[in-house]
Amino acid sequence: MSPEVSRLAALAPQPPEARDLLAFDREHLWHPYSSMTAPGAVRQVESASGVRLRMRVDGEPVEVVDAMSSWWCAIHGYAVPELDAAAVEQLGRMSHVMFGGLTHEPAVRLGRQLVDLAPGPAAGEPGALEKVFFADSGSVSVEVAMKMAWQAHAAGGLTRTKFFTIRGGYHGDTFSPMSVTDPEGGMHAMYAGFLPRHVFADRPPAAGEPLDAWTTATTALFEEHADEIAAVIVEPVLQGAGGMHVYGPEAVRHLAALARAHGALVIFDEIATGLWRTGAPWAADHAGVTPDILCTGKALTGGYLTLAAVLTTAEVAARVDASPAGAMMHGPTFMANPLACAIASANLDLLASYDVAGTIERLSAGLRTGLAPAAGFRSVADVRVLGAVGVIELQDAVDVARVTAAALDRGVWVRPFRNLVYTMPPYVTSDDDLDTITRALVGAVEEVHGA
Fold it and tell me: What pTM was estimated for this model as a whole?
């Protein structure tokens, strides 16, 4: 939307129903990471299809390209025929049934697909990720993974209450995930006195930078606490909400080797990185490491419903069952919800139906080319791309409201944070729409923060 159109739109009367919706929203509805008493601006989305959101901006109906995949989950965009059909078919059978003492075809089918897709050895071979625990959300899956690790050690009479991780990470907003999220630079610093204290190594250097000093320091820190460490937990290769930091697979391999040398487990949080976002089915594939426990979520249902899964080995499952509890002590009400499982299964079928790796490489090339001009701006510290993730890192904190508005004026929805203006576009984004996204990001940064 041009500045002239934007000014004219601001003068147009807003439909009463839209005004009422926004007024109620402002007075009563809390949004993520926002103030209830002084809320920021929100825009009403009326519908979505493909990669486009139809919303109202200053009372004017507009259509914009979604650069965020709705926080990285709507990988095939919106109103996806195959996923719509799976939802309708499953609704004709049942939308939900408890998973305690019961099972159903959508859960079994999705479990089989996840086991087949998992990194590492095939089912039945040592070290295969072949046991599946369905959870409500990504954060809950990390809770489950951490509980699994603790119970696995309890089976041997060990008391290992610490987790080892790296600074700059983000693992979710519930309490156990918050405790392994960066305690100082992360979003949960205010809870520091309320959370367990785990062991944090420095963030690994960016991909391509020397690792020797980091490796030496990390080894010494781990060995100091080795008898206490239940597991290493990391987002492999790419840290998401902690700063979109890209680091090398050799650092992942080092962390996994430390864990295994000292009897600790390896947990990979692939909620953001899994299902081809980094260019491979799993970020673990870049490192050639099979974790003992893997968490997946976000893109699992293609953005339709909340669902996550925890995959682990037969060995870990046996150790959990040998703990004093005799079972995995977790069981969400909506565990393995049939509707979510059916849609997730259709989503994995859709991913299997085309060359996803080639698609991600096309997006990656377009992001590298399109975002490159920002690298020359004095306001920009770095421009980086990994798979279908493109990041413009600013020297200073981003002016979220102004950059968001500037991108909307250019026909794109983005949600910057900290000092990052970034995109994780849907995989179905065309070259033309990707060009629109990158031009909008570069243009918005130049307009608001300067070249």
Answer: 0.94
